[in-house]
Amino acid sequence: MSNNTASRSAGLSNVLGLVKKYSFVLVFLAIFVVYAIANGGLTLNATMNVLRHSAVIGTIAIGMGIVCLTGEIDLSVGSMLALVAGFSVVVFNMTGSIPVTLLFALVFGAACGLINGFLVGVVKMPAFIVTLATMLIYRSLAQYACQHLPGELIGNGSSVYRMSSELGAYDALYSFGNARVAGVPIVGLTMVLVVVLFVYICASTKFGKKIYAVGSNAKAAHLTGISVPLMKTLVFTIAGALVGLSAFLWIAMNASADPATTGSSYEMYAIAAVVLGGISMSGGRGRMIGVLFGALSYDVIDKIIIALKMDALIQDTIKGVILIIVIMIQVAGPQIKEFFGRKGTK
User: Is 163 helix (H, G, I), strand (E, B) or coil?
Assistant: First the structure.
């Protein structure tokens, strides 16, 4: 092979490598352009609504992302959101305090995540089975408590947890959930700050490097002195705390939580955001910044479907096809790069 041909093959291989590395950005831009076309143009308000509507699922997806980086999965996050949000409403109605409600949501969410992490990391049960079980448990507890707690604690709602509008802090919390700063939703800014924090943790701290090490090769990580059970327990606990923060954002935005529907299928949406964001489900590969673009992409897909007035019954089919295509790109990308790399060396 001539030097020119080898150079072209190597150049193509490098381009493919960059495309794979930042595929989450390209996917988002492509989806956003389709949304703009389907919507007949975009306003600033419509664009900011994407950020607002992505806040809860995006924050949950960050937790799902670090779990997936260790090679595990958490199917309980949707039910956990319903449970934590419901009980956070109860705490708010009891105390009338926003800081206490936020603290409770974070701690209770972390406790729910700790249960998952202990069973997966220490007891060494399969994450799929553990979180499938806790998915059922958390949803059931949320519904049971809503039926049996005194009416004043659940805001006198009918099978729904409602924040009491008679409390002085009600307007402040609801305003926080729906207010904007310079046109940007506060809940969206909160999600972005969480993303920035975890991008830093995963890319620039020893703890982040340990997460990647466990996901890349747990046995090798153990041999280097990393406590794999502890890391997995911590990761699930952090994911639970982020669900707690999401629950706080949820009640701030909606002033209520329905134990039957709140967070329904959110585990799938979070996984979708992670996959669209370029994080490998096998663990050890991907960038946390991609989860932000994945969450935004997933919300924009919803808006495209609405803008095109498609039948609601076909929506999940479209989302599923998009996920399969993205995963195919993830799987085929390294193989294509390797193929052109081999051609370049011949």
Answer: coil
How, if at all, do strands 161-162 and 256-257 pair? antiparallel
Give CA–CA dist 23/279, Å, rounded. Answer: 11
Q: What angle do CA 232, 237, 241 make, to 5 degrees?
A: 150
Q: DSSP letters along 219-254, please?
A: HHHHHTT--HHHHHHHHHHHHHHHHHHHHHHHHHHH
Q: Name the residue with higher pLDDT: 147 or 46.
A: 147
Query: What is the count of structural domains for the chain?
Result: 1
Task: Check residue 72 and give left, alpha or beta (phi > 0: left; psi -120 to 50: alpha).
Answer: beta
Domain that holds residue 296: 3-345
Q: Is the Cα dihedral 231, 234, 238, 244 positive or negative? A: positive
pLDDT at 189 over 80: yes
- DSSP annotation of 168 reads T
Q: Which three-class secondary structure string do you get for 63-87?
A: HHHHHHHCCCCCCCHHHHHHHHHHH
What whole-number distance in Å separates Cα of residue 85 and Cα of residue 117? 20
Helix, strand and coil percent figures for the chain, each rounded to 5: 75, 0, 20
pLDDT band at 276 (very low <50, low <70, confident <90, very high): confident
User: Could you tell me the CATH number of the domain that includes residue 105?
Assistant: 1.10.3470
What does the radius of gyration of the chain's CA atoms come to, in whole angstroms? 22
- Residue bearing tokens 């729906």: 178
In the numeric block, which tokens belong to residue 309?
A: 């007035």
pTM for this model (two decimals): 0.89
Alpha carbons 164 and 166: distance in angstroms, whole number: 5
